[in-house]
Amino acid sequence: MKMNQLNREWIEKYQNKHNFKSSVHLEEKILQIGEGNFLRGFLDWMIFKLNQQGKFEGKVVAVQPTKHGKVVPKLNQQDGLYTTVLRGIDDGEKVEKIEIIDSISRGLNPYEQWDEVLKVAESPMIQFVFSNTTESGLTYKEEVYDPSQSPDSFPGKLTALLYHRFNKLGMEKNSGWIIIPCELVDFNGQLLKELVLKTAESWNLSDQFLQWIETENIFCNTLVDRIVTGYPKDQIEEYEEKIGYVDILLTTGEPYHLFVIDSPKDMRNILPFHEIGLNVHWDEIKPYRDLKVKLLNGPHTLMAAVGFLCGIETVKEAMEDEIVGSFIQNSINEEMVPTFDDVKKATNYVNSVTERFINPFNKHLLKDIALNTVFKFKTRLMPTIKLYEGKFHHLPKYIVFSFAALFVYCKPYKQENNEFIGSNFSKDYVIKDKVEVLELFSKAWSHYDGSIQSIQKLTTEVLSDRSIWDEDLNEITDLNHMIVTYINDILGHGMKASLSRI
Fold first, then answer.
1. CB of 223 within 8 A of CB of 285?
2. pLDDT of amino acid 173
3. Alpha-carbon distances of 308 from 205, 250, 320, 322, 324, rounded to whole Å
4. Helices 452-463, 479-493: crossing angle, 10 deg rounding
5. In which element (H, E) is residue 29 found?
6. Hey, how many other C-beta atoms are within 10 angstroms of the C-beta on 47?
7. What keywords would UniProt list here (predicted)?
8. What b/e sequence results for 342-362 when a residue is b if at least 16 CB atoms lie within 10 Å of its CB, and e otherwise?
9. Rounded Cα–Cα distance for residues 297 and 299 (Å)
10. Is the pLDDT of residue 266 over 90?
11. Buried b or exposed e, range 321-332, using 16+ CB within 10 angstroms
């Protein structure tokens, strides 16, 4: 039997069956640069929730951020409708929540519909600009300003849209925007503002416009967190059978979400996410970033090399392995959480992290986490090592053991096609990191001859490289000695046996 494709005409015929409440009458209030899985499974889902409760009553115009986008035609084909499937572990229970989202009014391709995008930009009803153009989107590109066509870069687009709005609305009160980028970059709002000002200056736009950017627009720093896995290609027939229609934009993700927006407090009254129970905070970013980096990203990095060298492929498998799982939990509970001043808050956060790690729907590969793992260790785990040592006057053995595992993971035994190849004692893998990191470990491991003295030499060489670590890590008391001991044990007995010994 052929199924109907999701669109407004079809869904309104069957709204009782799908519990669908139309919001087609709502005004467009948000301009969104980006229409990918993350924004649809995160922000647009939140706007939908607000509209359901009558707390915002506004729609989103989604603008394609690059020339190669493929989502806008699909969005318009389905009248802005799509399905979210949020699945995972929530409060210890396996959950799967399916909803039809209708917060997007339409999609626009700025390379073909720039005039339409400009009309949206000049609308006094548009209050917010949200974006997710990936980390590479928040970069400066030198380009010529042509009012008749879309700039290529995201900062260029935003500058051009702001300039058009300025020329239409002038210095009227509230003529500016609240701009909330969702790219995974520290101080993303601050950076975006700097890029807009730099672009405006390079285009020789007026001083009055530069002043208007400063006085009438608010750029917010944010922290976003939700795993959105997107279109479930391998399971789509199963889902179509379950929902009873075809949705070419069906989007899967985890139940957990966190959105922190650093902005003036009165913003929360316009977008009252917190009033409907969403995990959204209009607050300073740093405390939340510290929790995420140290207690979510940190354990990921901790387990990557250790688990992979045990022959484990995913985060879930690592957590469920008796030895590796105990190692991870011990490190989190005994070494990471105690470094926080508010241990209770950290413990509560860990509970949500654990549920995310064991989500049966997310196949989070350790080899992916191990990409650029040296930089990740430096930013995610070295601060915890120092905090722990300062508080307890000795080093955290589990984190230091994972540092030793990183050394072993970065041990190449051959080079093919300009790639360094390592081995986890059962199969080969490509060590993926920055060139300078690969060359450092390759040179250091060339000294290894099986003796503890050669391990001492290679460890000293790596830890002393200030271009990698910004300091000489040999100066941290006992760090070198412990890493040498663990490396020697791993090479002599294997990863699992060494884990069991600590």
1. yes
2. 73
3. 53, 32, 14, 15, 10
4. 130
5. strand 27-33
6. 27
7. NAD, Oxidoreductase
8. eeeebeebbebbebbbbbebb
9. 6
10. no
11. beebbebbbebb
End-to-end CA distance of the chain: 59
The answer to whether 129 touches 158, Cβ cutoff 8 Å, is: yes
Two structure tokens written together for 430 = 């490509």
User: Which pLDDT score is estimated for 18?
Assistant: 61
Q: What are phi and psi of 154, to 5 degrees?
A: -65, -50
Which amino acid, 479? L
Residue 313: HSE in the Cβ half-sphere, 13 Å Cα cutoff: 4
Joined together, the tokens standing for residue 270 give 């316009």
Q: At what angle do helices 397-409 and 322-331 cross, to 10 degrees?
A: 120
pLDDT tens digit sequence for 309-350: 999 999 999 999 999 999 999 999 999 999 999 999 999 999
Q: How far apart are CA 30 and CA 132, in angstroms?
A: 14
For residues 202 and 308, what is the distance between their CA atoms, to the nearest angstrom? 48
Tokens standing for 23? 């919001």
Residue 91 three-state SS: coil
pLDDT band at residue 413 using 50, 70 and 90 as cut-offs: confident
- Cβ neighbors of 56 (< 8 A, separation 6 or more) are 29, 47, 50, 270, 271, 272
Note whether 86 and 95 are within 8 A (CB). yes
Q: How many residues does the chain have?
A: 502
Q: Residue 243's beta-bridge partner residues?
A: none
Residue type, 247: D
Residue for token digits 């000795």? Answer: 394
Distance (Å, rounded) from C-alpha 459 to C-alpha 481?
9
The residue type found at 183 is E
309 C-beta neighbours (distance < 10 Å), count:
27
Place of tokens 């601060």: 383
Domains annotated for the chain, with CATH where assigned, are 8-283 (3.40.50.720), 287-501 (1.10.1040.10)
Q: 31 pairs with which residues across the strands?
A: 61, 129
DSSP string, 45-72: HHHHHHHHTTS--EEEEEE--STT--HH
Burial of 445 (0-12, 13-18, 19+ CB in 10 A): buried
Q: What is the CA 448 to chain-centroid distance, rounded?
A: 38
Alpha-helical (H) ranges within 203-335 are 207-216, 236-243, 286-292, 298-309, 315-320, 322-331
d(CA 172, CA 162): 14
